[in-house]
Specification:
about 475 residues, alpha/beta, Rossmann fold, Isoleucyl-tRNA Synthetase, Domain 1, 3 domains, 4-stranded parallel beta sheet, 4-stranded antiparallel beta sheet, 14 strands, binds adenosine monophosphate, binds zinc ion
Length: about 475
Amino acid sequence: MKALTLYNTRTRSKEVFEPATPGVVGMYTCGPTVYAPQHLGNLRSQLFADLLKRTFLYEGYKVTHVINITDVGHLTDDADAGDDKMEAAAKTSGQTAQEVAALYTKQWADDRERVGCLPPEFLPRATEHITEQIELAQKLEQGGYTYLTSDGLYFDTAKFPGYSDFAGLDLEAQQSAGRVAEVDEKRNPADFALWKVAPEGVKRQQEWDSPWGRGFPGWHLECSAMSVKYLGENFDVHTGGIDHVSVHHTNEVAQSECGLGVHPWVRYWLHNEFLSLDKEKMSKSKGHVFVLDGLVEMGFAPLSYRYFFLQAHYRQQQRYSQEAMEAADTGYKRLCRQVIEVRDAPGEPDAEKLAPFQARFRDALHDDLNAPRAVAVAWDVAKNKELSAAGKRALFLEFDAVLGLDFANVELPEETQESDPRIDALVQARQEARAGKDFTESDRIRDELLAEGIVIDDTPEGPRWRRE
Ligand code: AMP
Ligand code: ZN
């Protein structure tokens, strides 16, 4: 079997995963900016990190997972201009920045849990780690990597020759495009704020004293400072959405490698592609459909969204549509029915028969977390005629450690009988043949339907049919 192989953004290649300390993985995920509800796309980045964490656990690693809560410093403009998103949201809502943060942190945590994401070992907030951020900025200042402007302390990207390596940036193009205009005193367009000082006479809700004046940390600083605090000066894995590669993660690497004198700071960088939301179409339906509650209002189970997520590889763009979501919901329920049927099966599984399925399941995960293939193996188990019910039960429960679809507990409402006049008529004809003891004819009809993937269950209330 191939070893666990993951696509590393840093090296732009698939690499065999080997943590620095055998058996132990340190992992950091960029979490939410808690100024507004987290939408289904944000949730994709959490589901991806969870799939990765669960895969590590399945492989037998001990995992320390850190996710940050950005509750200060993320500006409305990535080029260090604009208002702080938290302050802006507080102004428009009439709440305090803290109240806004509490509200959306809870929404994010609840939704994460509802789609089956495991809790992180640490969930640090930026506002609770101001000292650590100031200390890192001081290290950078002492190392000669910074300069002061009237606006605060900036990182001088020209002092870090490897700055453009991480994302393969074309800095000359940026220079000629004049992005520097956003903040007049910047030396290079890519330079970024480590500490922003509050302008004279402006009282912000969130501000702290620092060696550079009263103000607040730049957004990127929190991830460097907090990851190092909980995972050490270098660690194994860092994840986030693909949009973070060129600015946020590039800046995290610059700060950390210069401030701590390490290279590489993080060995494996993994990024999920975007979920594209067809806003036009979605906004036509009622309610706040971009968030998980919107799906629930439409009658979907939260875990159907997890099943939807598993239908695409994490490095592929996934398009949300009502139809695709409905298909995922149907697929999830069908698979669950197969699981529920064998969940209480008595007896021991035959280990030899399980092995080929386990090997294929692991192979799928080892191929850069190929979730669609892993789900397909679960379906093969469901359809297999050789495996005993106890064997199926064992495989479903084992696979669910990674799939996270709650196979051990999921309950479904009584299945309402699907209606199809042709099939109904055939089932009725079979019933009549059986009543007349014409078993050749009743078996023929049963086999004809079976060939189409339709199974008849004879229940005390009479025959019911379902799709396999
Ligand atoms: P934010 O709250 O904007 O800081 O984003 C939280 C996480 O969600 C980040 O890792 C983003 O890269 C990710 N993200 C934002 N939009 C999407 C999307 N449409 N699809 C997938 N991930 C996203
Ligand atoms: Zn981050």
